[in-house]
Amino acid sequence: MESHITLENRMEELGRMPAWLEELGEAWGLPAASMLSFNVALEEAVSNIILYGYDDPGTHQIELQATLQDGVLRFVLRDDGHEFDPTRRPPPDLNLPAEERPIGGLGIYMIHKIMDRVEYHRINSYNHLILTKNTGT
């Protein structure tokens, strides 16, 4: 099973993802609670692309592809923004008090906690972020 959505690099576009994920969950028989978690991970990833991926004011496309095969749900995010590999970012030190922690990094940490696997590839000037979760279905 496969589904796609394309978003523009505007924060308002994030509002389209929950309905897409809800439809996916219903069509593929995935629990609503799981879909909410996936929405958190995808919203974090897409918002980072929108906020930090581009220097120019132009419109860019962020492509999301979801596949479900043999109980493995896979999301692939593809964008032409700046090269950024979130798998190389060290996890935040959660033992530090909040006011002593550097800004940033918690969203990427949440993505890693929600998903079973996070991969990154740069292919032909495009970022490919691959988020995988074993759904047990």
Supply Rg. 15 Å
CATH topology descriptor: Heat Shock Protein 90
* CATH homologous superfamily title: Histidine kinase-like ATPase, C-terminal domain
**Tell me about the biggest sheet?**
5 strands, antiparallel
Number of helices, counting only DSSP H or I runs of 4 residues or more:
3
**Structural class computed from helices and strand pairing:** alpha+beta
- CATH domain class: Alpha Beta
Q: Which bin fits the share of residues in helices?
A: 25-40%
Portion in beta strands:
25-35%
Mean pLDDT: 89
Number of structurally distinct domains? 1
Helix and strand run: EHHEEHEE
Net shape:
globular
CATH architecture: 2-Layer Sandwich
Task: Tell me how many strands there are.
Answer: 5
Distance between the termini: 13 Å
Helix/strand layout:
Layout: E1 2-8, H1 17-28, H2 32-52, E2 61-69, E3 72-79, H3 106-114, E4 117-123, E5 126-134
Antiparallel strand pairs: 1-2, 2-3, 3-5, 4-5
Helix pairs in contact: 1-2, 2-3
